[in-house]
Amino acid sequence: xxxxxxxxxxxxxxxxxxxxxxxxxxxxxxxxxxxxxxxxxxxxxxxxxxxxxxxxxxxxxxxxxxxxxxxxxxxxxxxxxxxxxxxxxxxxxxxxxxxxxxxxxxxxxxxxxxxxxxxxxxxxxxxxxxxxxxxxxxxxxxxxxxxxxxxxxxxxxxxxxxxxxxxxxxxxxxxxxxxxxxxxxxxxxxxxxxxxxxxxxxxxxxxxxxxxxxxxxxxxxxxxxxxxxxxxxxxxxxxxxxxxxxxxxxxxxxxxxxxxxxxxxxxxxxxxxxxx
Length: 276
Fold this sequence. Notes:
Shape: globular
Number of helices: 4
Number of strands: 26
Strand content: 25-35%
Structural class: alpha/beta
Helix content: 10-25%
CATH superfamily of the largest domain: Hexapeptide repeat proteins
CATH architecture of the largest domain: 3 Solenoid
Number of domains: 2
CATH class of the largest domain: Mainly Beta
Order of helices and strands: HHEEHEEEEEEEEEEEEEEEEEEEEEEEEH
Protein backbone atom coordinates (compact mmCIF):
# COMPACT_ATOMS: atom_id res chain seq x y z
CA UNK A 1 0.00 0.00 0.00
CA UNK A 2 1.09 3.60 -0.59
CA UNK A 3 1.56 6.09 2.23
CA UNK A 4 -1.58 7.92 1.10
CA UNK A 5 -3.70 4.78 1.28
CA UNK A 6 -2.19 3.85 4.67
CA UNK A 7 -3.04 7.28 6.07
CA UNK A 8 -6.53 7.19 4.57
CA UNK A 9 -7.12 3.78 6.15
CA UNK A 10 -6.00 5.12 9.54
CA UNK A 11 -8.27 8.15 9.11
CA UNK A 12 -11.29 5.98 8.36
CA UNK A 13 -10.60 3.84 11.42
CA UNK A 14 -10.07 6.99 13.51
CA UNK A 15 -13.54 8.18 12.52
CA UNK A 16 -14.95 4.98 14.02
CA UNK A 17 -13.17 3.58 17.08
CA UNK A 18 -9.38 3.95 16.67
CA UNK A 19 -7.81 5.97 19.50
CA UNK A 20 -4.47 6.57 21.21
CA UNK A 21 -5.35 3.70 23.55
CA UNK A 22 -6.07 1.19 20.77
CA UNK A 23 -3.47 2.18 18.12
CA UNK A 24 -0.64 -0.34 17.71
CA UNK A 25 3.01 -0.24 16.59
CA UNK A 26 2.07 -0.63 12.92
CA UNK A 27 -0.22 2.40 13.17
CA UNK A 28 2.52 4.52 14.71
CA UNK A 29 4.97 3.32 12.07
CA UNK A 30 2.64 4.82 9.45
CA UNK A 31 2.45 8.10 11.39
CA UNK A 32 6.25 8.27 11.72
CA UNK A 33 6.75 7.52 8.01
CA UNK A 34 4.24 10.24 7.24
CA UNK A 35 6.16 12.81 9.33
CA UNK A 36 9.42 11.77 7.68
CA UNK A 37 7.85 12.32 4.24
CA UNK A 38 6.74 15.81 5.25
CA UNK A 39 10.22 16.68 6.48
CA UNK A 40 11.93 15.52 3.28
CA UNK A 41 9.42 17.35 1.09
CA UNK A 42 8.17 14.12 -0.46
CA UNK A 43 4.62 15.16 0.40
CA UNK A 44 3.08 18.59 0.99
CA UNK A 45 -0.12 19.92 2.51
CA UNK A 46 -0.90 21.87 -0.67
CA UNK A 47 0.34 21.94 -4.26
CA UNK A 48 -0.21 24.12 -7.31
CA UNK A 49 -2.23 22.39 -10.01
CA UNK A 50 -3.35 24.06 -13.21
CA UNK A 51 -2.29 27.42 -11.86
CA UNK A 52 -4.34 27.10 -8.65
CA UNK A 53 -3.27 26.05 -5.17
CA UNK A 54 -5.15 23.05 -3.82
CA UNK A 55 -4.97 21.37 -0.43
CA UNK A 56 -3.99 17.71 -0.18
CA UNK A 57 -6.74 16.70 2.21
CA UNK A 58 -5.16 13.35 3.04
CA UNK A 59 -1.96 15.09 4.17
CA UNK A 60 -3.90 17.36 6.50
CA UNK A 61 -5.74 14.28 7.78
CA UNK A 62 -2.36 12.68 8.52
CA UNK A 63 -1.37 15.72 10.57
CA UNK A 64 -4.61 15.58 12.53
CA UNK A 65 -4.03 11.87 13.16
CA UNK A 66 -0.67 12.69 14.74
CA UNK A 67 -2.53 14.76 17.30
CA UNK A 68 -5.50 12.46 17.75
CA UNK A 69 -3.58 9.21 18.12
CA UNK A 70 -0.75 10.40 20.34
CA UNK A 71 -0.72 11.16 24.05
CA UNK A 72 1.11 14.05 25.69
CA UNK A 73 4.64 13.09 26.68
CA UNK A 74 7.56 14.83 28.32
CA UNK A 75 10.37 15.61 25.87
CA UNK A 76 13.73 17.22 26.50
CA UNK A 77 15.40 19.77 24.24
CA UNK A 78 18.73 20.93 25.61
CA UNK A 79 18.09 21.69 29.27
CA UNK A 80 14.36 22.31 28.77
CA UNK A 81 11.59 19.80 29.41
CA UNK A 82 8.42 20.39 27.41
CA UNK A 83 5.16 18.50 27.14
CA UNK A 84 3.61 17.79 23.76
CA UNK A 85 2.28 14.97 21.60
CA UNK A 86 5.24 15.37 19.21
CA UNK A 87 8.96 16.00 19.68
CA UNK A 88 10.72 18.81 17.84
CA UNK A 89 12.17 18.19 14.41
CA UNK A 90 15.82 17.09 14.28
CA UNK A 91 17.95 19.72 12.55
CA UNK A 92 21.24 17.84 12.16
CA UNK A 93 20.56 17.63 8.40
CA UNK A 94 20.75 21.44 8.08
CA UNK A 95 24.56 21.88 7.75
CA UNK A 96 24.83 19.46 4.85
CA UNK A 97 22.24 21.46 2.93
CA UNK A 98 23.59 24.91 3.77
CA UNK A 99 20.70 25.83 6.07
CA UNK A 100 21.17 27.35 9.50
CA UNK A 101 19.18 28.16 12.58
CA UNK A 102 20.33 30.39 15.40
CA UNK A 103 20.18 29.19 19.03
CA UNK A 104 17.88 30.07 21.91
CA UNK A 105 14.39 30.05 20.54
CA UNK A 106 14.41 28.64 17.01
CA UNK A 107 11.68 26.00 17.16
CA UNK A 108 10.95 23.67 14.24
CA UNK A 109 8.22 21.20 15.03
CA UNK A 110 8.27 17.61 13.80
CA UNK A 111 6.73 17.28 10.34
CA UNK A 112 7.97 20.64 9.01
CA UNK A 113 10.03 20.94 5.83
CA UNK A 114 12.97 23.36 5.68
CA UNK A 115 14.75 23.65 2.35
CA UNK A 116 18.42 24.10 1.51
CA UNK A 117 20.26 27.37 2.16
CA UNK A 118 17.43 28.56 4.41
CA UNK A 119 17.98 30.75 7.47
CA UNK A 120 15.88 30.57 10.62
CA UNK A 121 16.60 33.37 13.08
CA UNK A 122 15.68 33.15 16.74
CA UNK A 123 13.17 33.39 18.12
CA UNK A 124 11.03 31.88 15.38
CA UNK A 125 8.55 29.01 15.11
CA UNK A 126 7.80 26.68 12.19
CA UNK A 127 4.81 24.43 12.80
CA UNK A 128 3.98 20.91 11.63
CA UNK A 129 3.09 20.61 7.94
CA UNK A 130 4.72 23.92 7.02
CA UNK A 131 6.94 24.00 3.95
CA UNK A 132 9.81 26.53 3.88
CA UNK A 133 11.51 26.65 0.49
CA UNK A 134 15.17 26.84 -0.52
CA UNK A 135 16.97 30.09 0.22
CA UNK A 136 14.19 31.52 2.38
CA UNK A 137 14.80 33.73 5.41
CA UNK A 138 12.54 33.35 8.46
CA UNK A 139 13.49 36.34 10.59
CA UNK A 140 13.30 36.97 14.33
CA UNK A 141 9.89 36.70 16.02
CA UNK A 142 8.32 35.06 12.93
CA UNK A 143 5.69 32.34 13.03
CA UNK A 144 5.04 29.98 10.12
CA UNK A 145 1.75 28.27 10.85
CA UNK A 146 0.65 24.70 10.34
CA UNK A 147 0.57 23.70 6.64
CA UNK A 148 1.65 27.15 5.41
CA UNK A 149 3.54 26.92 2.12
CA UNK A 150 6.47 29.32 1.79
CA UNK A 151 8.26 29.35 -1.55
CA UNK A 152 11.91 29.67 -2.51
CA UNK A 153 14.00 32.79 -1.90
CA UNK A 154 11.31 34.39 0.24
CA UNK A 155 12.07 36.99 2.90
CA UNK A 156 9.80 37.05 5.93
CA UNK A 157 10.55 40.29 7.77
CA UNK A 158 10.90 40.35 11.54
CA UNK A 159 7.72 39.84 13.58
CA UNK A 160 5.79 38.40 10.62
CA UNK A 161 2.87 36.03 11.18
CA UNK A 162 2.02 33.42 8.55
CA UNK A 163 -1.22 31.84 9.70
CA UNK A 164 -1.95 28.14 9.62
CA UNK A 165 -5.00 26.46 8.10
CA UNK A 166 -5.30 22.87 9.29
CA UNK A 167 -9.07 22.56 9.27
CA UNK A 168 -11.14 22.10 7.23
CA UNK A 169 -8.86 19.57 5.56
CA UNK A 170 -10.02 20.61 2.09
CA UNK A 171 -9.15 24.27 2.74
CA UNK A 172 -5.94 25.56 1.14
CA UNK A 173 -3.46 27.01 3.65
CA UNK A 174 -1.65 30.32 3.45
CA UNK A 175 0.62 30.46 0.39
CA UNK A 176 3.63 32.75 -0.08
CA UNK A 177 5.06 32.09 -3.53
CA UNK A 178 8.67 32.25 -4.73
CA UNK A 179 10.61 35.49 -4.50
CA UNK A 180 8.21 37.33 -2.20
CA UNK A 181 9.47 39.89 0.32
CA UNK A 182 7.21 40.60 3.31
CA UNK A 183 8.10 43.64 5.39
CA UNK A 184 8.37 43.54 9.16
CA UNK A 185 5.15 43.03 11.04
CA UNK A 186 3.10 41.63 8.15
CA UNK A 187 0.19 39.27 8.81
CA UNK A 188 -0.98 36.73 6.22
CA UNK A 189 -3.95 34.60 7.30
CA UNK A 190 -6.92 32.43 6.33
CA UNK A 191 -5.59 30.86 3.14
CA UNK A 192 -4.48 34.10 1.46
CA UNK A 193 -2.12 33.65 -1.53
CA UNK A 194 0.75 36.08 -2.07
CA UNK A 195 1.83 35.98 -5.72
CA UNK A 196 5.45 35.42 -6.69
CA UNK A 197 8.01 38.23 -6.67
CA UNK A 198 5.70 40.62 -4.83
CA UNK A 199 7.02 43.12 -2.28
CA UNK A 200 4.74 43.84 0.67
CA UNK A 201 5.19 46.87 2.91
CA UNK A 202 5.61 46.72 6.67
CA UNK A 203 2.61 45.95 8.89
CA UNK A 204 0.37 44.97 5.98
CA UNK A 205 -2.54 42.65 6.79
CA UNK A 206 -3.40 40.17 4.03
CA UNK A 207 -6.57 38.19 4.64
CA UNK A 208 -9.52 37.23 2.40
CA UNK A 209 -11.80 39.63 4.28
CA UNK A 210 -9.79 42.73 3.33
CA UNK A 211 -10.08 44.05 -0.25
CA UNK A 212 -7.03 44.40 -2.46
CA UNK A 213 -7.28 47.47 -4.74
CA UNK A 214 -5.16 46.32 -7.67
CA UNK A 215 -4.15 49.47 -9.55
CA UNK A 216 -2.39 47.42 -12.24
CA UNK A 217 -5.45 45.59 -13.54
CA UNK A 218 -7.82 48.19 -12.06
CA UNK A 219 -9.98 45.79 -10.07
CA UNK A 220 -10.86 44.97 -6.49
CA UNK A 221 -9.95 41.40 -5.54
CA UNK A 222 -10.13 39.25 -2.43
CA UNK A 223 -8.03 36.36 -1.15
CA UNK A 224 -4.91 36.84 -3.21
CA UNK A 225 -2.25 39.31 -4.30
CA UNK A 226 -1.27 38.93 -7.96
CA UNK A 227 2.38 38.30 -8.87
CA UNK A 228 4.90 41.13 -9.10
CA UNK A 229 3.00 43.69 -7.06
CA UNK A 230 4.09 46.24 -4.50
CA UNK A 231 1.46 46.21 -1.79
CA UNK A 232 0.84 48.33 1.30
CA UNK A 233 -1.93 48.95 3.81
CA UNK A 234 -4.24 51.96 3.58
CA UNK A 235 -7.48 52.89 5.32
CA UNK A 236 -10.70 53.68 3.48
CA UNK A 237 -13.96 55.12 4.74
CA UNK A 238 -16.24 52.67 6.51
CA UNK A 239 -20.00 52.41 6.15
CA UNK A 240 -20.38 53.08 9.90
CA UNK A 241 -18.65 56.43 9.57
CA UNK A 242 -21.79 58.41 10.45
CA UNK A 243 -22.66 56.49 13.60
CA UNK A 244 -24.01 58.60 16.46
CA UNK A 245 -21.65 57.08 19.04
CA UNK A 246 -18.53 58.81 17.69
CA UNK A 247 -17.41 61.75 15.61
CA UNK A 248 -14.81 62.16 12.94
CA UNK A 249 -15.66 59.19 10.74
CA UNK A 250 -14.63 55.54 10.81
CA UNK A 251 -12.19 53.72 8.56
CA UNK A 252 -11.43 50.13 7.64
CA UNK A 253 -8.21 48.57 6.34
CA UNK A 254 -7.60 47.94 2.65
CA UNK A 255 -4.57 46.90 0.61
CA UNK A 256 -3.32 48.89 -2.37
CA UNK A 257 -1.32 46.99 -4.99
CA UNK A 258 0.69 48.61 -7.76
CA UNK A 259 3.71 47.91 -9.95
CA UNK A 260 7.00 46.98 -8.32
CA UNK A 261 9.07 50.14 -8.71
CA UNK A 262 12.70 49.85 -9.74
CA UNK A 263 14.04 51.53 -6.61
CA UNK A 264 11.99 49.18 -4.40
CA UNK A 265 13.37 46.17 -6.26
CA UNK A 266 16.94 47.48 -5.98
CA UNK A 267 16.56 47.99 -2.23
CA UNK A 268 15.32 44.42 -1.83
CA UNK A 269 18.23 43.09 -3.88
CA UNK A 270 20.75 45.03 -1.76
CA UNK A 271 19.29 43.49 1.37
CA UNK A 272 19.53 40.01 -0.16
CA UNK A 273 23.21 40.64 -0.94
CA UNK A 274 23.90 40.94 2.78
CA UNK A 275 23.02 37.24 3.16
CA UNK A 276 25.63 36.02 0.67
